[in-house]
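CORE FACILITY INTAKE
Project code: CF-77B
Contact: R.S. (postdoc)
Sample description: multi-component assembly, two entities in total
Requested service: structural model of the whole complex
Turnaround: standard
Below are the sequence entries exactly as provided by the requester. Do not edit them.
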Amino acid sequence: MTQVELPRNTPPEDNRSGNQTVVQKHPKAWKWYDYFTFNTDHKVIGLQYLVTAFVFYLIGGLMAVVMRAELATPDADLIDPNLYNAFMTNHGTIMIFLWIVPSAIGGFGNYLVPLMIGARDMAFPKLNAIAFWLNPPAGLLLAASFIFGGSQSGWTAYPPLSLVTANTAQSLWILAIVLVGTSSILGSLNFVITIWKMKVPSMKWDQLPLFCWAIMATSVLALLSTPVLAAGLVLLLFDINFGTSFFKPDAGGNVVIYQHLFWFYSHPAVYLMILPIFGIMSEVIPVHARKSIFGYKAIAYSSLAICVVGLFVWVHHMFTSGTPGWMRMFFTISTLIVAVPTGVKIFGWVATLWGGKIRFTTAMLFALGLLSMFVMGGLSGVTMGTAPFDMHVHDTYYVVGHFHYVLFGGSVFGIYSGIYHWFPKMTGRMVNETLGRIHFILTFIGTNLTFLPMHELGLQGMPRRVAMYDPQFVSLNQICTIGAYVLAVSVIPFTINILWSWVAGAKAGDNPWNALTLEWTTSSPPLIENWEELPVVTHGPYDYGLNHSLEVQPSAATQVGA
Amino acid sequence: MQQIPVSLWTLLAGIVVTVLSIWVGQNHSLLPIQASQQAPLVDGFFNVMLSIATALFLVVEGTIVIFLVKYRHRPGDDTDGVHVEGNLPLEVFWTAVPSIIVLCLGIYSVDVFNRMGGFEVGSHPHMPHSPAHVAQMPGSAIAATLSDASLDESEIPSPAPIPKIGIGATPTELGKPADLVVNVTGMQFAWLFDYPESGVNTGELHVPVGADVLLNISATDVIHSFWVPQFRLKQDAIPGIPTQLRFVATKPGTYPVVCTELCGGYHGSMRAQVVVDTPQEFESWLSENRIAQQQDMQKAVASNPADLSTSEFLAPHAQQMGVTTATLAQIQK
C-alpha cells in the first residue's frame, strides 16, 4: 500500500550529493502496518526476520517440549512414534532453517550491516525483501506437511528412509528447504556486495566492525555450500515423485552420495549458525566490558579461517557410514584443525574482559553465558571429531548434548544477547533489566539441566532420535525433561519483557550503552535511510579507553539534520 | 596479561588443575564396561582427551570467573577500561598451544584407529580399489571379489569376500582369516544373524569369548547402524554397500545391540542382544540351534504350504509357540 512512497535506494556515491538537495524532504517514519507488507527498508526486513523467526522458535520449542515429555518415560506412551519422529524432524528443521539462520543472518545481518558500515540500505533492497518473503511460505509448507503425517526422516532426510516414509510430507519438506535455501543464497549475495562496495569511504577495512566480518565470512560460506544441498534435495525430490533412482540402492542408486551432498552444505550450516553469533559476541563484549576487543585482526581472520576450513570437514558426520578408513582419518585431522581458530576467538573474548569495567547488563549476561557454555560445546566437539571415539558416540545422545551446547548455549544465547543489546536501537526503548535477569537465570539453569546429562546418556549407550529407550536411562532422561520445562518457562519473562518494553519501556536515547560503532550515531529507532547526513569515521569501532568524546559522534551525525 | 606476576598462586593453580584433570580422566565412570579388544583403545584415547578437556575447561572457566569478579563495574566509576588492542606473543601462544594439542590428538587418533583395525589392507589410501569399491556398490559380493582380485593381485588372499568399509583386522591379525564369520542383516525393525558355516539363523548374536569375529553387515530396506556400546564399535548397515566389523570379545556376558541410525517409527525399539559365551557354551548353543533349524528345514521341504489349509499350515508353528490346538480354536472363534 505504501510502496509508492518507498525511499529511493541510491548508490553510495549519489548519497552525498543527493543529501544536500533532499535533506529537507526526509521520508516519514514507518507505520506499524508497514511491517506487514513487502517493504524494502533493511531495518523493516531485519525486524520482520527477527519476529517471524521468534514465532517459529516458539513452535519448534513446543515440539521439543512434547518430545521431552514423551521421553520422561522409557515407553512410547504419550504420542505415536511416527508423530514423535515428525516432531523430531521438524524441531530440527525449524530451529535451524526458520529460527537461528534467519534471525542471526537475516535479522541481525539486515538490521545492522548497513547501519554499521554507514550505508543507507542494502545493495539490492528488493532482492532483500524477496529473500525474506520466501520464509513464510516455507513455514506454511512445513505446517501443511503435518496434514500428511509430517516428514519423519530426520532433518538429514537420509534415503532410503526418506524415500519410503510419508512421501507427500517429505516432498513438502524438501520444497520448504529449497525455498529457505534460495532465500539464504539471495541474502548472502546481498551481504557480500553491500559490505564490499557500500561502506562509507571514511571507514578503513580494519575499522569494519567484527560483526560485518563475520557476516562476510558467513555469506561466502552460504554461497559456496547452499547450492550443493539444493542439488541433493532436488535429486531426492525426483526420486520420490518422478521415478528416478539417484539414491535407490535396488535400482543402481547410491545412498552415501546423498550423505556427501547433504553434509557438504550442512556442516558449513553449523558455521552459518555460529559465525554471525561470534560477530554479535565481538560487538556486545567490548561495549559492556568498556574494553577494546583483544586481537581485532585475529578475530576477523579466524572467521575467514573457519569459513575456509569449515568447507573441508563434512565427512566427520559420516565416520560410521560408507566411509573408507583413510577418509575417516583425513577428516578427523581437518576437523580438529577447526578448533584452533575457534579457540583464538574464545581466548580473545576472555582477554577482552581483562582490565575492563564489566557491566552485568542482560545483554552481557547472555554473552558471558555463551562464552562459558561454548567452551563446553567446543571441547566435546573435539572429542567427537576423532573417528576412533566417534565410532562409539556417533548418533547417540552425546551428539545431541554437544550440538545443543553449541546451538542453544551458543547461537540462541547469542541471539538473546543481541536482542537485549540492540533492542534500544531498534525500538527506542530500554528493556526491563530485572525481567531480563530472570530470563537469563532460567535459561542458563535450564540449558545445563537439559543438555549436560545427555553426554552421559550417550556415552552409556542411548541412541538419539528414539521415542522409546532402555529403562536403565530413565533417571537422567527425567532430569533432561525437567530442564526442558525450565527452558519452556524461561521464554515467558522474555516475551513479556519484549512486548511490554516495546510499548512502554523507558526512552533509550540514541546511544544508551555509550558504544562506538556507527549504528549508535543515529536516532533510536533510526530514520528511514538511516542518517540525514552520513557519519564520518574518526576512530576504530572498539577504541574504548582512549577517551573518545562519545557525544561528538551522535551530535555530528544526527542532530545536524534533525 | 603481562601485569600478572607468575606468582606462587598461579603455580599452585597449575598443579591443582593438572592433578585434578588427570584424576578426572582416569576416574570418571562415564563409559560402560569394556568387552572387546578395541574398547580399551577407545577408552584410553577418550581418557586422554577428557583430561586435556578438563584442564582447558578449568583454566578458561576459572579465568572467566576471576575476571568477572576482579573487573566488575563499581558504582560511580564511569571510566573505560585500559586500552589494550592485543598482545602478539600471547596470541601466538594461544594459537600454537591448541595447534600442538590437536596435532598430537590427530596423530594419536591415527594410531588408535590403526590398532583398532581401521586400516586393514584394502581400505588404505594407497590401494586404488578402495574408493572404487564404493562406486561399484550395487554389485553383489561375488562381483566385488572378482574385480578386487583382478585389480590387485598382491593382496593377501582371503577365503571370504571382505567388505572394505568398517573395522577390519587389527595389525596382529592381518592376513589371517577370522575365526567366526557372521552375516548381520538389519531390517525394520530387527537384526538377523546368519552363521554361514553352520547354517544357523537367529535374532540373537552369540560369539565365543576370545574369538576373532567378522561381522558382514548389510541392510535390506533402509540404513541401520550396528552398535554394541560395550564393544565401542559401530558401523552403519547400508542397503547396497557391504560393511564389516571385526573384533575380539573379551568379557563373557550379555550386551545390547542397538540400532543408532534413524530407521522409522520404531527405531528406538530395534534392539537385540549379543551374548559373549565361553567357547564350550558357544559350541553347545550352536549345535542346539543347528539341530532345531535342520528339523525346520525338513518340514519346509516336505510340505508345500499351498496345499495346506490355514490351520494345518499354522499347526507346527503354533505348537512351537506353545499354543495348543484348543486355544487356537478358541482364538479363531
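Facility notes:
- The radius of gyration of chain B is 29 Å.
- Chain B touches chain A through 96 residues (CB under 8 Å).
Invoice: internal transfer
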